[in-house]
Amino acid sequence: MRAARRLLIVLIVLAALFVAADRITLHFAESQAASRIQSQRNLSQKPSVSIEGFPFLTQLASKKFDEIKLSAAALTVNDGKGGPDIRLQNFRIDARNVKVTGSYSGIFAGSGTGTARISYADLSAALPNKVTVAYGGSPGKVKVSGKVDLPVLGAQQVSGTADIVVVNGTGISLTNISGITGVDPTVADLVSSFLQPQLALAGLPSGLRLESVQPGPDGIDVTVSGTNVSLSK
Questions:
Q1: pLDDT in tens, 65-104
Q2: Residue 233 and residue 213: Cα distance in Å, rounded?
Q3: Residues 6 or more apart from 30 whose CB is under 8 A from it?
Q4: What is the spatial distance between Cα 121 and Cα 139, in angstroms, rounded to a whole number?
Q5: Higher per-residue pLDDT: 119 or 100
Q6: How confident is the model at residue 215 (pLDDT cuts 50, 70, 90)?
Q7: Residue pair 87/75 in contact by the 8 Å Cβ criterion
Q8: What percent of the chain shows pLDDT beyond 90?
Q9: What whole-number distance in Å separates Cα of residue 119 and Cα of residue 106?
Q10: Is 2 exposed, middle or buried (0-12, 13-18, 19+ CB in 10 A)?
């Protein structure tokens, strides 16, 4: 009886040591992965990395992880044509079936879904034609305005309401312009294309594509998803 009790105590101690070692190693690995991602993607702040699942040590040994959650204060993308940078604020991604190469030099996910937000100020600064975008006050709608040069009339300040949609999974577009003000209704069609520019978003983690955009009071909420996603380079 005494021997069995001693064996039980030993097993409990060993289990506790295993759990402690597992959690310590997990914390170190998450920090290493975050540092690698920050360096390789030129992030201004170190992201948060959470490796899910238990035990961690068995996943580490195989370099295969069920799920990794990544969040960054901002991820910088652009239009791919040398235009201004665009900040994806509060970028978050849930990656599954993750494989790691080397010393976290490469982090690849079988699939991933994520969210981010683009402020109206950042979106306006990046759009062609110097079109300014603001919240439209109703689902899916944004207010758009800008200055357009018209024949005979010259420069005119115009505005209207538009939908904002995803284009080919790689960019966003303002479309379905309505309620144009600032010009005579007879020439409203001349400015509709001016108020409906498209913007590509290049520089997302490889494998991710835009799924949807939804305007809200504080900016455009973006969702992304994809397969064979690279979280590092």
A1: 888 999 999 888 887 887 788 899 999 999 999 888 876 6
A2: 25
A3: 49, 50, 51
A4: 19
A5: 119
A6: very high
A7: yes
A8: 27
A9: 30
A10: exposed
What pairs with residue 75 in β-bridges?
A: 88
H-type alpha helices, the chain? 2-40, 56-62, 120-126, 188-192
Residue that is written with structure tokens 């600032």 in the block: 182
Amino acid symbol at 210? L
Tokens 């490796």 appear where?
51
Q: Choose among 98, 104, 94, 132: nearest CA to 41.
A: 104
- Residue 106 to residue 91: CA distance in whole angstroms: 19
9 pLDDT above the threshold of 60: no
**Residue 139, beta-bridge partner list:** none
Instruction: Specify the 3-state DSSP secondary structure of 233.
Output: coil
Distance linking the first and last C-alpha atoms of the chain: 58
- Structure letter (DSSP) for residue 78: B
Tokens of 177: 């312009």
Q: Which residue has the tokens 């035990």?
A: 55
Reference 183, options 194, 198, 175; nearest CA is 194
